[in-house]
């Protein structure tokens, strides 16, 4: 069975500082990994994904994520946080023949 | 529009009432997904279509929930005899066929059962 863990319910960071939102996963085959962001009263917006190739993936709005196979992690990062990055972030995993499984979400608050 | 369109955006239903939620996927997307999201939680899988075929309905919580996509485009999620625990956001997403393809979400239908 597939599963996703996001160990932090809430991450607080000061504007301009680097941010990390953590994600670990469990799948039986090769993982396809995704990050989505959700603003209040909105649907989920795609940020970036890892399918194959370089372990460092760059996405929208300056976000990037690093795939680490040995640690089964896919942490989301950004070098310099903005107040407008404050939102709910979801990590998701999929493997061949399986459906998307989402993590419980991490609420990011960027403080001015 | 270019995105996934869902209607209604907000629905208040009396307990016991039937509701129908509509999803119009991105043109050309053969895969369509329905998810249920409780407040502040991650989306939970309900069902999956490839074209008109419902390939997985393992996430539907009870036989009161029914989904269809008769012509392989627009999909409807129907909830019969709504209960208070059905109150949630119902998200529709679509993608091209293939495991590595990104799924794109609509804005969701917010259902409140009173």
Output mean pLDDT of chain A: 95
Order of helix and strand elements from N to C terminus of chain A: EEEEEEEEEEEE
**Contiguous uncertain segments of 5+ residues of chain A:** none
- Rg from Cα of chain A: 13 Å
Oligomer: heterodimer
Task: Give the class of chain B from helix and strand content and strand pairing.
Answer: mainly beta
Strand content of chain B: over 45%
> What spatial form of chain B do the alpha-carbon principal axes imply?
globular
Q: Could you tell me the strand content of chain A as a percent range? A: over 45%
CA radius of gyration of chain B is 13 Å
Query: Residue share in helices of chain B?
Result: under 10%
Largest sheet, strands/sense/barrel of chain B: 7 strands, mixed
Largest sheet of chain A: 6 strands, mixed
Order of helices and strands of chain B: EEEEEEEEEEE
Structural class of chain A: mainly beta
**In DSSP terms, counting alpha (H) and pi (I) runs of 4 or more, how many helices of chain B?**
0
Calculate the mean pLDDT score of chain B and round it: 95
Terminal-residue CA separation of chain B: 32 Å
> Can you count the helices of chain A?
0
**Largest interface: pair, residues per side:** A-B, 26 and 22 residues
Overall shape of chain A: globular
């Amino acid at each position: 069975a597939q599963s996703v863990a996001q160990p932090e319910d809430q991450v607080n960071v000061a504007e301009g500082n680097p941010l990390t939102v953590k994600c670990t996963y469990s799948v039986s085959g090769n993982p396809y990994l995704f990050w989505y962001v959700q603003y209040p009263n909105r649907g989920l917006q795609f940020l970036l994904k890892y399918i194959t190739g370089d372990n460092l993936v760059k996405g929208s709005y300056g976000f990037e994520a690093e795939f680490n196979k040995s640690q089964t992690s896919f942490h989301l990062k950004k070098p310099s946080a903005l107040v407008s990055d404050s939102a709910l972030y979801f990590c998701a995993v999929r493997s061949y023949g399986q459906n998307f499984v989402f993590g419980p979400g991490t609420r990011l608050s960027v403080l001015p | 529009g270019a995105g996934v369109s869902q209607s209604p955006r907000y629905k208040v239903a009396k307990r016991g009432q039937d509701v129908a939620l509509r999803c119009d996927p991105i043109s050309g997307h053969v895969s369509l997904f329905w998810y249920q999201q409780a407040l502040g939680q991650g989306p939970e899988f309900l069902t999956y279509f490839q074209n008109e075929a419902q390939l997985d309905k393992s996430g539907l919580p009870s036989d009161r929930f029914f989904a269809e996509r008769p012509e392989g485009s627009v999909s409807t999620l129907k909830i019969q005899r709504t209960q208070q625990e059905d109150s949630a956001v119902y998200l529709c997403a679509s993608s091209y066929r293939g495991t590595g393809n990104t799924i794109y979400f609509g804005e969701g239908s917010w259902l409140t059962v009173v």
